[in-house]
Amino acid sequence: MLVSLRSGMAAADGPSCFAAGLPQRPGEPERPAAHMAALILARGGSKGIPLKNIKPLAGVPLIGWVLRAALDSGVFQSIWVSTDHDEIEKVAKQFGAHVHRRSSEVSKDSSTSLDAIVEFLQYHDEVDVVGNIQATSPCLHPTDLIKVAKMIREDGFDSVFSVVRRHQFRWSEIRKGVCEATKPQNLNPAKRPRRQDWDGELYENGSFYFARRSLIDKGYLQGGKMAYYEMRAEHSVDIDVDIDWPIAEQRVLRFGYFGKEALKEVKLLVCTIDGCLTTGHIYISEDGKEVLSYDVRDAVGINLLQKRGVEVRLISERHCSPKTLSAMKLGCRAEVGVANKLPVVEKWRTELNLCWKEVAYLGNEESDVECLKKAGMSAVPADSCPAAQKATSYICKCNGGRGAIREFAEHIFLLMEKVNSAGKKPR
Q: Given 6, 192, 308, 333, which residue is catalytic?
């Protein structure tokens, strides 16, 4: 039996409405909720891109996009990453997921997703429903997962999988060397329909497959009382199949899920001097004077931000020379010798009458962690410390003092375009 749910339907009121599972009859003893687990399969081997699952996409490890959506959906009792690689395990834990270390038997090129899911269930008797989410679908949104969880828990479906609607005409394939005429598969060439006059066809997009344990025990993910869930076309991004990295980054920046709170336009960027504006290296002249260097690209990035009305301010734990900072000619207010950065940034935010969502922060050390967590947009250079990388929402490709500020500036501009575009949509 197969039915559908269009992704354009209204979302449920929230995760709490699924807590009771299937409806109970009056007088029945209270039943425990079915344990629904999200499971992202992410082995280390990749024939195309090495460690693709944790390669930064728009500043976030690829797997981080779906983990964020799964966590914020609130419908899973547990969220797991099945992997055979230490670095993937590390990233998964940074995003708050549990890790199942899969065996070598289900980590081969020939291993199927079902093989890995079956092994996972052998170690987790508590799991009743598996939501297998594909790591390579970075435009997945929590609202999709909320609706699918309702289909399983309240509507009683045994399996639900994601599809996308496509308007593509199909023709029969002719084997090479065979002189035959091709035939249309889903159209009449004499009456080719316009796109707006044709509903198109539904194709699996591989974003997710939800199935009850009882179904998986029989050896398949799709069956029983079965339904498809139609995702919006702009959210149907599959890096494995039909998209390359630069295009995917543009799609994610435009259509991706960035968290529960709405983005706001950035009005203030605070940047750490040592390790962000500079490489962190200090050169000492023969007369004992400090000499610092910075990348011209970063100066251009600061200038572009200032031209767009963004206040840029610098902060440092060290007592940098005022003359040195002045010689940089960046036109930024700076505070140096700051042991605790958060109160200083809080003071600046209050002075400018801004909320934290309007503040961006670029840091690289443990002393930056609290500011990185509070800022509406945050970033760290590629060579920042692990604690800073864990606290941020964007990891630059560039190192500190080597273009990280310019890169973050471009990222801010792209997200500000997303904010402005959302504000122009009719309500």
A: 192
Dist. CA 62–CA 39, nearest whole Å: 15
327 — pLDDT class (breaks 50, 70, 90): low
Residue 361 phi, psi (nearest 5): -140, 135
Q: How far apart are CA 234 and CA 315, in angstroms?
A: 40
Name the one residue in this structure whose structure tokens are 């749910």. 5
Facing residues of 132 across strands? 39, 209
The end-to-end CA distance of the chain, in Å, is 38
Express each pLDDT in 253-278 by its tens digit. 888 888 877 677 899 999 999 899 98
Distance, CA of 313 to CA of 361 (rounded, Å): 10
Query: Shortest CA distance to 364 belongs to which of 332, 347, 341, 335?
Result: 341
297 is catalytic: no
How far is C-alpha 226 from the chain's CA centre?
Answer: 28
Side-chain-side CA neighbours of 277 within 13 Å: the count stands at 25
pTM comes to 0.73
